[in-house]
Amino acid sequence: MLDADESVELRALQARAYGRAGALNEAEAARLRELEAGRARGAERPAPTRPESHATTPPQLETSTSIVAEGGGPAASGEVGATGAAHGESALRRHWPVVVISAAFAVVGLVLGWLIFADRGPAPMHLTAQQQEWQSAIVASGDFDRGSVRAMTQEEGVVIWFATKNEGADVCLVLGHEDATAPACTTREQATIQGVNATLAKPVSSAQTYDIQAQMFLTQSGEPAVITRSFITSSQSTSMFASEAEAEAATSLAERTGLDRRTILVVGYDDEVPIWTGIDTSTQRYCLVYDGSMPDPPMVCDDSLMLADADRTLVLDVVDDGETTRYEYQFGYGQQYLTVTRGWESDDAAGE
């Protein structure tokens, strides 16, 4: 027969063993079997006033009898005393897979969270031996926080580094090539809102330089995002070219057509074929030229004095394999743009 304390202990163990999320260790399961056996022995002795009744089933135990055992249907309340040990072991066996699966999901969740949200930063950029020397010189200057200098990308051989100053309060964009560096720094707040810009001029020849421009913003996570662009400029011209080959083509075009080299520039492309504009040296007329790589390229000119008009258009028709392509370039003080129309057909196309 169980006393009051043992009855309370029995009900607690039964609730943990047979409840929806119950689980017992070996010692607790053994104690449950011991208490249920003691209660069963007490129930076998008939009570003087209620000989036909078994011991009263605790409310918690009645709830537990709705649990479906591994081998069949619901266990009846009258069988709990005789099969308590089996039910305890069954409950333990039943809940161990749930515990293991829950733990596995927790581990997977932690791993996925680390992969998605961990702040690992961009992969380090591979530097040549010479570029590593440039970086070592930047680090040795002492202008930036220790360990903060890291290479992000390069443009036409110019390396772009990210660094910080003042213990991380300021962020910097550093462009470097050989002995030339171009640093630019600002606060983290300004870099997030407006970004930071830096430009470095890399010599191409005695008269031309590669202008490398970089702009850096900070993402919401604080990581740098960089945009780069480059073009060739000349001290003798205001024109800009995308590459050395394009700059050389402009020089050849000036020799073939008589256009002023200082005024020649690319206004658009038809696939990979450049469309040029420039001012004729002898007549001062404004001209539109197709390709320019041939000795006598297709070209049309207008009076450059009419540039003051708001809307002026140069129209050039080029026939290739019987198909006409029209190039219309609008210029003046307003918006300037090139329109390419393939398969152009018009009665006055030849006259224009």
What's this entry about, in short?
The protein is 30% helix and 32% strand. The protein is α+β, with helices and mostly antiparallel strands and 352 residues long.
Q: pLDDT below 50 for ≥5 consecutive residues: which ranges?
A: 47-93, 114-122
Strand elements, count? 15
Helix content: 25-40%
The coarse overall form would be elongated
Query: What portion of residues belong to β-strands?
Result: 25-35%
Mean pLDDT: 74
* Strand order within the widest beta sheet: 1-2-3-4
Can you walk me through this structure?
This protein is of the alpha+beta class and 352 residues long. It folds into three domains: 114 residues, no CATH class; 101 residues, no CATH class; 101 residues, no CATH class. Helices cover 30% and strands 32% of the residues. It is built from seven helices and 15 strands. The strands form four sheets. The chain has a four-stranded antiparallel β-sheet. A hairpin with an 8-residue loop joins strand 11 and strand 12. Helix 1 crosses helix 2 and helix 2 packs antiparallel against helix 4. The termini are far apart.
